[in-house]
Amino acid sequence: MKYKGLDYRTIAEMLNKEFSQCWIQFTERTIKDFFRKDGVLHDPYVKYESEWDAINKELFLSAKKAGIQILEKNFRTACEVLGELLNSKADSVRVSATKELLNRILGKVKLPIEISINSPKNK
Q1: Residue 37 lies in a domain
Q2: Tell me, what's the pLDDT at 116?
Q3: Residue 119: what pLDDT?
């Protein structure tokens, strides 16, 4: 529960609900004391935290590697699709494709600008 970011009060409330038939009542202070440097859960929690951090890092790196492989296989197709969208008949599609292309090449701008497209009127 602590690893998931729950605060001590929430953990105490959850434990009290889970063990409502028990005579023990957990307080925020009790839970906090459990995790103190000399608390009974400090060392096991540090071990648990480091193990899960390693697992999550490995999962993230695997997902990133898979994403890179997908990108490598489909990069040309993605560029071709974006190029086709630049020639769309719909102004909004062309603007979106242009923004996407510029953002990918130059990076997103720090100060946003508003773009409006005024089509020439038939005379």
Answers
A1: no
A2: 75
A3: 61
Number of Cβ within a 10 Å radius of residue 8: 19
Give the number of residues written for the chain: 123
Residue 95 covered by a domain = yes
63: exposed, middle or buried (Cβ count in 10 Å: 0-12, 13-18, 19+) = exposed
- Which residues make Cβ contacts (< 8 Å) with residue 121, sequence separation at least 6? none
- The phi and psi torsions of 53 (rounded to 5 degrees) equal -60, -40
Query: From the centroid of its chain, how far is CA 27?
Result: 32
Cβ atoms of 6 and 45 closer than 8 Å: no
Is 2 part of a structural domain of the chain?
no
Q: What is the mean pLDDT of each run of 10 residues along the chain (123 residues)?
A: 85 89 87 90 90 92 91 88 90 91 82 71 54
Provide the residue range defining the domain that includes 87.
59-107
